[in-house]
Design brief:
The protein is mainly β and about 70 residues long. About 0% of the residues lie in helices and about 45% in strands. It is built from no helices and six strands. It is globular and about 35 Å long.
Length: about 70
């Protein structure tokens, strides 16, 4: 999978993208102006096939799954 495998998710005010880099799944939220609102390391990842999970909005929170060997 490439860095473009995951689909962004938006609540109408922020858009969240998730990607894997340096052995971590990371999530970043940007506002409608494209400014970073927050960013965080979600979980470590060690996968032969890469990362492709997309964030979803549930009960007002952004959620993403991570399936990894670690």
């Amino acid at each position: 999978n490439s860095f473009a495998s995951s689909t962004p998710c938006s609540d109408g005010r922020r858009t969240v993208v998730c990607f894997a880099a340096d052995g971590q799944v990371r999530a970043t939220a940007v506002d409608l102006a494209g400014e970073i609102v927050w960013k965080t390391a979600v979980a470590p990842i060690d996968s032969l096939h890469g990362f492709a999970a997309s964030p979803v909005l549930a009960a007002g929170k952004f959620v993403v799954t991570v399936d990894s060997h670690t």
